[in-house]
């Protein structure tokens, strides 16, 4: 089994964190291909940045999905997830959806621990779009600038644990989601210090991606996730044009 794991942010340090946690979650025989967005921002906090990250993830996936069995979108908020499901012939799993589903299998209400205050609006909208708003106990987030996104665990680890403890004590969380690719691996490190289960989106996504491959779903020929109609494209990479427009190279750009 081969999985393509995409970091929709441009931070190579964050990709290394994702990879370290992803490799702890793979079965024997599962191979990983790691990819970092070729353009965009260091970490996604806003709706606009999520749109850019989604486009970057689509471009990477279009160019690299061949010979892989599934794709993982490794950013909380799942930029580009549903679009990728619509155009790719293989399963696509996102960190957020995977973590939310896993959280709801372990408790009635969950809280999200995040790396910035600004990120909360986008997270709430994403959680609501997945249909889990009523299960959300709270989002608690750091409230100071991040000096280096790849070192947030070392720099802010104790504050993140304190936020998690407050989410349980004050907000009634049964499960905690330590959100965002920069926190990959933190749940595994601090789980013994917390009074309820703590989930890592990378871990959840890797396990679910492998399960999806095992399920061997057929590509839909109907419904809203069927392949898009053929149409002309302009300004896209050849690989993305072939997926989005279903056009042979000779007619692209018309």
Automatic annotation (TrEMBL):
Its domain of life reads Bacteria
- Point out the signal peptide segment: none
Q: What species is this protein from?
A: Halomonas stenophila
Q: Any idea what this protein is called?
A: Asp/Glu/hydantoin racemase
What's a single GO MF annotation on this record? amino-acid racemase activity
Pfam short name (any one):
Asp_Glu_race
Family assignment?
A: Belongs to the HyuE racemase family.
